[in-house]
Amino acid sequence: GMKLQEIQSIRSMFQSFDEDNSGSLTPDEVQSALSRYGLSISPQEFEAVMEAFDTDKSGSLGFEEVVELFLFLKASSSSQV
């Protein structure tokens, strides 16, 4: 599971990157957020994860989608070490 702390830090990160307060992050905003968290992925990978996690195909990621994405990336990056 995910710690409440982690969810809260993702939420505050989410809100700081959601500049238009739309409740979702555009691909650009998601990429900024990822690099802020030190999660660097290639453009190809980024396109693939955006596709995978944008479950409603809106072209941007809502908060829950962003949390899922971060969990996935954290899990996959820590398994590589």
TrEMBL record:
One of its GO terms (cellular component) is cytoplasm. It holds the Pfam family EF-hand_7. Its main location: cytoplasm. One of its GO terms (molecular function) is calcium ion binding. Keywords: Calcium, Cytoplasm, Metal-binding, Repeat. This is EF-hand domain-containing protein. Residues 5-40, 41-76 form the EF-hand domain. The keyword Ubl conjugation does not apply. PROSITE patterns: EF_HAND_1 (PS00018), EF_HAND_2 (PS50222). It is found in: Cytoplasm.
